[in-house]
Amino acid sequence: MNNKGEKTRRQRLWTWLKRPLALGIPIGVFLLVMGAASFQGMMVASNQNAFCFSCHLKMDTIVQEYKASSHFSDGETIPATCSDCHVPRPFIDKMIVKTVALKDIYHMMVGTITKENFEEHRPAMAESVWIDFKKNDSANCRACHQGENFNLAKQPQRARLNHEQIAARGETCVDCHQGLTHNRIVIR
């Protein structure tokens, strides 16, 4: 305190800094915004084909099969990215898939799955994906293939009849369309 009994500038600053809410709220908001921005950045980055290719390109056939498929852009059509097919849209489901995918990254890093043994692991991995597609009634397929992108009137008769009866037969897209983007895998 100075001669007049008033607090000095330093004392006033120290008093203000001691107030947890006065300092805690701006720091908390800053950390929350930075955390949300980092989280969103990771979600966007991990949904890019370049992210997927960084491991799968080393697996020999996956990327090449995709690039040869109708889902890869030919410059005239809109491409379906890896995440369009393999990452669910609902937030909770997306987080579950991304968390489970950490297991795949781990196995790649420790060498459990390599370019040399990828094809022997591939049937089990493919079956796991097909099971997920069946569980959610091929929701990712249906997210794009609807309306004008799935006009039954424009389909050949056989395809139109099969698509009209798919629900009655208890089937979903992946039951007939395995091997559309990646080569069909034979499960033994």
From TrEMBL:
Residues 26-184 form the NapC/NirT cytochrome c N-terminal domain. The keyword Oxidoreductase does not apply. It is found in: Cell membrane. Belongs to the NapC/NirT/NrfH family. This is Cytochrome c-type protein. Pfam families: Cytochrom_NNT. Binds 4 heme groups per subunit. Keywords: Cell membrane, Electron transport, Heme, Iron, Membrane, Metal-binding, Transmembrane, Transmembrane helix, Transport. It is a single-pass membrane protein. It comes from the Bacteria. The chain crosses the membrane at residues 21-45. The keyword Glycoprotein does not apply. It comes from Shewanella schlegeliana.
